[in-house]
Amino acid sequence: MTIYTKLEDNLTKLKLTAIKEYLPSYLEGNDLSLPEILEQLTSKELAYRTQRSTKMSIHVAHFPYAKGLDEFDFDFQPSVDKQRIMNLASMNFISSAKNILFIGSSGVGKTHLATGLGMEACKNHLSTYFVNCHELIERLKLAHQENRLAAILKNYSRYKLLIIDEIGYLPIDDLGSDLFFQLIARRYEKKSTIITTNIPLSEWGETFSNPTIANAILDRLVHHSEIFKITEKSYRMKDYQEHTKTQK
With 60 as the cut, is the pLDDT of residue 245 above it? Predict the structure, then answer.
């Protein structure tokens, strides 16, 4: 076994994937010193690991799609303040445990904005999870039924950023309202939560069967929060109209 073969074997065992990939190009002759070569190779390894870590974080976050903030059409939705959104992309809101609420009718880009901020959180190595509100309520109910509610509440409470999508599309009964409140109360002033909803906050008492609990949930979500009310047209309608034009 040659020295080079042994070196490749060591790099494989140490899982230094990027160094192993780029090493041949540095052995073909260059004017760099050994420290310079090592610095460049280790930098490539670190960049590779960061990229891989980000991809894994985005995968386990369970986003509905991979759309970043750079893909959001702010010109189509002038009611969304681009500068405010980009300021949030710095992730300072997570360090201060602030919440974000996106309010607007279906198709205006609420989920896209929430996902875009979630992807930024993943890039910053902040634990993130995306879940549909109805799915979340059903999971909490099942855990309650199986006597493992404490464990699942602890799990959802550990994320630095929890994104709860589509509050208001389906009614939430007494048990669901109570369990949802317990989760929000656990995260209150400790972790950040992003909410998307298609109904005004004043009407949450009609979605949650218990108006008292609805007010208690809102009180904790709105305190230390940024609220975006999106009032423009639907992206889906825009896409439909553009598609219709091309078919004529």
Answer: no
Percent of the chain exceeding pLDDT 90 equals 83
Q: What global pTM score does this model have?
A: 0.87
Q: Please state, in angstroms and rounded to a whole number, the distance separating the CA atoms of residues 125 and 123.
A: 5
* Confidence class for position 233, pLDDT limits 50, 70, 90: confident
Element (H, E) at 218: helix 211-222
What one-letter code names the amino acid at 170? Answer: L
- Helix (H) / strand (E) containing 69: none
pLDDT for res 237:
54
- CA–CA distance from 244 to each of 176, 234, 236, 239 (Å)? 41, 15, 12, 9
Taking the C-alpha atoms of residue 29 and residue 16, their distance in angstroms, rounded to an integer, is 22
Residues 110, 112, 115, 116, Cα dihedral to 10°: -120
Side-chain-facing half-sphere of 211: CA atoms under 13 Å? 4
Token pair of 118, please? 């979630």
To 10 degrees, the CA torsion angle through 166, 168, 171, 175? 70
d(CA 5, CA 188): 55
Q: Is the predicted pLDDT of residue 66 greater than 70, yes or no?
A: yes
CA-angle at 138, arms to 133 and 144, nearest 5°:
125
pLDDT, mean of residues 178-200: 97
**Residue type for 179, please?**
L
Cα–Cα distance measured from residue 232 to residue 75, given in angstroms and rounded to the nearest whole number: 11
pLDDT recorded at residue 222: 97
Other Cβ atoms within 10 Å of 20 Cβ, number? 18
